[in-house]
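Ticket reopened. Same input as before:
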Amino acid sequence: MSETLSNTRKMNMIEAIRDAHDVAMERDDDVVVFGEDAGFFGGVFRCTAGLQEKYGTSRCFDSPIAESGIVGTGIGMAAYGLKPVIEIQFADYITPAYDQISQEAARIRYRSNGQFTCPIVIRTPTGGGIYGGQTHSQSPEAIFTHVSGLKVVIPSNPYDAKGLLIAAIEDPDPVIFLEPKRLYNGPFEGYHDRALKGWKDHEDGKVPEGYYTIPLGEAKTVRGGNAVTVLAYGNMVHVCQAAQAESGVDAEIIDMRSLIPLDLDAIERSVKKTGRCVIVHEATKTSGFGGELMALVQERCFYHLEAPIVRVTGWDTPYPHAQEWDYFPGPARVAKALKKVVEAV
Amino acid sequence: MDGFQRSGEAESGARRGLRVPQPPARPGEAPDFSNVALGEPGKLGLPPLDAEASAFGVFHHDLFRVLGEDGAAKGPHAGDVSDQELKSALLAMIRTRAFDTRMLRAQRQGKTSFYMTCTGEEAIGVGCALAAQDGDMHFPTYRQQGILFANSIDPEAMMNQIYSNKKDPLEGKQLPVLYSFREQGFFTISGNLGTQWPQAVGWGMASAIKGDDKIAIAYIGDGATAEGDWHQGNLFAAVYKAPVLLCVINNQWAISTTNAFAGADLNTFAARMGSYGLPALRVDGNDLLAVMAACRYAAARARAGHGAVAIEFLTYRGGAHSTSDDPTKYRAKEELEAWPLGDPIDRLKAHVIAKGILSADEIEAIEKDAETEMREAENRAEENGLVHAGQGAPGEAMFDDVYAELPGRLIEQKKEAGF
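Engineering reply: fixed in the latest deploy. New output:
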């Protein structure tokens, strides 16, 4: 945190994200915000509420339903010198913009040898656990982590969401900012049959007012432990905490927060200590980001490993509707994996 | 022949089956441009700067032309371009062609793997560039090198890029001809077609957001208008009234496919852009005077806050698509000679001679000078190395500018690669 402020306010993740926009727009006239329903209405999830009224229609505006056009125009604005913060309504709908993101935003600095840059942030709600079915639940982070030139960030709580978003907006490189929509209103541990807790009683629901940043590329250890390292991000950070409690395994849980850049030191330090590793994400398994994490742990910690690395992920199927809780990697599945890994000889 | 075929038609005479467009002529057939609406020089005058988009309907299917076949400028826009500007334009067009000729030969000699000429389309890049102002930004495709000659680039810098050598301004990262010259208002070219179209609109939107008077100029070929980005860019430009010139270069061909595969035989590109609510013009792309008059008008209109202007430039791709292409395999050999709008350089030459601005001898001297300039530039570029001779840009440059700062994993990979 680059600036310490004593005043904090209880915020849910939506309010924290909205506040990050507000702080960034207040500090820098070049920050502009747009997307489908992001203007007058303030976004379908309210993440840009009130910004148009406060900063005017030139700084915060609605867009046509055209993801490639949204990102393409944002790239042009960034080339001019603005800092566009773009909203794609659901991560499931980012694929029409994949050409502009992967071949343009990610490459402009490289292909122009630094003559042109693309300081853009593409925010998009990600993840499942909301009965969103096939096109309101996906976790597409791996199609971005595979692209050279992009940064990929995914917060798991209001405090991080605000600090990471301000850092992303100030970052000189294009950032894909994935927001687990299941966490917008409260920490969700995967117990779908229990009432939602809300952020008000959670430590990370206390958000400093004003400006602060959380550097991209720094993981956070949310629970220290010695038996096994758990690498997680987004929704799964909370699921893993519940799974730890359920299993009683002394797990060290690391919230990666940024996937690119990745905090390799944090991973290495922890796995070398515990000798065991479980990787958890909602995204489908094959070629998911967990495969990359697994490879890195294997490359860097091989002689410290006491058991095979285990991945708990979404199944290799499209995200189903009725089978939501058979698909979503919940505490029971993660707890089982934790026990399996610590019991392995 | 109605310009397309239907499967099964020959046997049954029925109208069922898939319509597959065909060009007017294939190799061995006589060129046929009878379906191209050619307009009449001097007939059309441009509307007032603040005219509604609906006032442009007349330009959708007619053709805005200034230069007559006799070399004289005609109509209300005959005097829009000064004698000095005509000389500058002719010089830039001649230099563009001399550069292309030189680089085509360099490719055949194995000095570079790849090149693309803009033969027959020189008036468009040059005219658009001369109508723009310092600070405006062109978002070109790989066939608007004329912009760079109008904006006084040193051809050696372009050749260094083509040769990927030690002085390549892009340090060997890009395929030949995918230039980037920020200082000349020339946006980094991408291999992915159409992407620059909404980017240009966004650049214009940014200018509008900041209350600036700079404009963006977007270019796209006829074939690439089929890309989704063309449609989205048109829509955004119209919706936000972005200060941008949207230039479709209709050169009849997208590699081997006729522009009918982009719907050109169903409606003009100007009319289609007009359907988005954009003021749209269809302009003789081989008539430098018409190109400049239309671009000047469009730029002034955009700068005054009246929003985007769309222009379809009608022209013909005189050369092969690229050095990897052989057009004799798919189009009539005599098409270039038969193209009714002629050659842009020859037409401008005839005009400046008729006007007494330059004599034929003076033009010949200019052409000789351009050849010499390009030969000398090529010699200098060759001294900086040829990638194919193992004298490419430095290896360690490969890792720079992926991000603003080299992240940890790239530092590791750079070491692993031996740098």
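Residues 112 and 239 of chain A are 43 Å apart (CA to CA). The mean pLDDT of chain A is 97. Please confirm and we'll close it.
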